[in-house]
């Protein structure tokens, strides 16, 4: 009788333990399922992004001009060559000051002298032994004065100045105030990117969320065209990842 009672109680305890274990497992599944669902939603949300590019362009006037006037003289003696360099440099300097350029904007490089007899012999020798090249450089913010004076360089040729047509000595117009317009251009590019993201979101039945990541491209500066090098086109492209939300 006692053995039967003991067996009954043991079986009852096993049933109770199994029931408790089942309840705990159910709770675990519910909690675990809720966690997995939340994780799945977060993972899905993390994957819902759109990558767009925003563009900003602007045309600006150059702020600095570099105008090199490269000239050549020849002679049979070094002192003669130096005198001719000084003479022609004086002609060019007077031309530039008459055109309205300040003296501090005009500099003369040291002449480069070449002995043309060094690699020539007999009848192949040039008529003059030495040649010297020098550059009178105008560095100025007076862009209009440079443009007005450039067509007048024929006056120098008429006075015996031999100007070099070498492309290495071409006039350059530069824009030096990029840092002043960078913030505004980045803002324009970002707004352009968000506009594109908004259109994509509307087409997909979503709305634009927060920025996930962004990268700014480099600023490019180029001439507007070959006829107006003093007008520059500045361009920047930004790449932005936006989250998409329901």
From TrEMBL:
Signal sequence interval, chain numbering:
none
| Coiled-coil regions listed in the entry | none
In terms of domain of life, where is this protein from? Bacteria
Protein name per Swiss-Prot or TrEMBL: Periplasmic protein
Query: Where does this protein come from, organism-wise?
Result: Salinisphaera dokdonensis CL-ES53
